What does this fold into?
Amino acid sequence: MSDHPDLENSVVAYLVGAAEPDEAELMRVHLAGCEDCRRLVARLQQVVDALPLAVEELEPSKDLKSRIMTAATASSQTHAPAPSARIRSRLRARARARWRPLIRYPHTALAVLAIAFVGLGAWNLYLNDRLARVPTQQRVTTTTLSGQGQLAGSQATVVDLRDQGVAFVTFRHLPSTEAGKVYEIWLIGRSKIPVSGGVFQPDSDGTKTLVVAVDTKERTTIALTVEAGPQGTTAPTQAPSLAGTI
Amino acid sequence: MSGEPWGGVTDPELAEQLAAGSSQALEQLYDRYAALAYSVAMRVLSDPGKAEDVVQEVFLKLWKGATAFDASRGSLRTWLLVAVRNRSIDHLRGRGGHERFEKDISQYAAASGAGSDPWQEVAQSMEREAVRQAVSSLPAEQRQALELAYFGGYTQREIAAMISLPVSTVKGRVRLGLEKVHSYLQGRGFVDE
It folds into this structure.
C-alpha cells in the first residue's frame, strides 16, 4: 500500500466517477506515475464493476427488443464500411495523377478552368430552367448554416433534394478535431431523436461534402458535434456547434 | 454467470459474432443482458422511457462499434453495464465526459493484469445476491456516499454539500465502503487481493 492515504482516497473517488473535472485531471497524471495507486485501482475496479449487480432486477417493455433490432438493421443498411487505408491511399494517388498535368502547365489549367466555368454556367442556366418547370415539391432548396462557439466561422451549405430523400451537405472552414475525435453529423426528424448521419474528418482545407438521408415529408434538423472517434456515438454528447433546419 | 454458454455461445464468441455483423448475436446479447442493463438504467434514472432509450443507445453503440470492442480490456457484460450506468448519468446530470473516463480507467485494469477481465474474477462466479449482501451490509453512511456517487452521478463536492460534511469525509466514506465490499467478496472467494 502507498503512504499517501489522502491521494488514495482521491483516486478512489476518481474510480467511482465522483472526482471533479479538475481533480480527475490530477488523478490521471498521478496514476500514470504511481504504481501503488494503479494497484489500488486494479483491486477496487473489480468491486466497482460488480456494483451494477446490486440493483433490483426489472424487465423492460416487450417492444424494446424489436425497436433495437429494427434500428440495428437500419443502421447496417446505412453504414457502409469505410474504405481501407490502402484503398484510400490508392484513390488519393490516382487523384493526384489525374490533376498532375494541369499543375505542371498552369496556363493550360486556367484555360480548362475557363471553359469549365462557361460550361458550368450554361449548365446552371439549363438546370434553373428545368427547375422552373418542375412542380414545386420537386424543387431543390439551398440553405446555409453558420457555426458558433468552437465552430465559429465554419459554415455548411445544404442542398436539399427533398423529393429524392437526400441532401448534400458541404462543410467549409472546419477546424481539425483533437486527436481521437471525429465530427459526427446528426439528423433530427419527427421523432425528435438525433440519428447519426455518419462520422468524418474534414479535408486538409477544412471542407467536406456528405450525402445524408432526409425525410421526404418532414422538416429535418441537421446538427454537427465533435465526438469520440473513430466510431462516434449513438447520441450526441454535447450541444451542436453548428445546426439548422431544412 | 458471464462467460458461460447460453445456448452454447460464450460471451467472447458473441463478441466475435457481433464484430462479424451477426444480428442473431445482438439478439442473443439482448436476451442475456437487457433486463440487467435496464435495471441499472432504472436505478439511475427512475424513468422507464428514458431507461429504455439508454439501453437502446448502448446496444446500438455496441452493434455499430462491435469491431472495435477489445475483449482483453473486459467482458462484454462489464462493458455493457458500465456504459449503461455512465450514459444514464450523462442523461440525468446533463453532462458528458464519462466516455473518456471509461477509457482512462480501463487502461489500469488491463495493465495490472488483475482486472484484465473483471468478470472472470468477480461476476463470473458471483451471484448477484452476494453483491447485494455486500452493499447492504455497509454502514448506512458509507452506503449512502457510495450510492450517491455511483448511481446518483454526484461528485464528491456535491455529495459533501448535500450531507453537510467535508469533502475529505465523503472521500473517506466512499473508500471505506469499497474496501469493505471488496473484503466481503474476497472472503467468499469472489475477488482477488
Observations:
- Residues 1-113 of chain B form a domain with the Rna Polymerase Sigma Factor; Chain: A fold (CATH 1.10.1740.10).
- The radius of gyration of chain B is 17 Å.
- Chain B has ten helices and no strands.
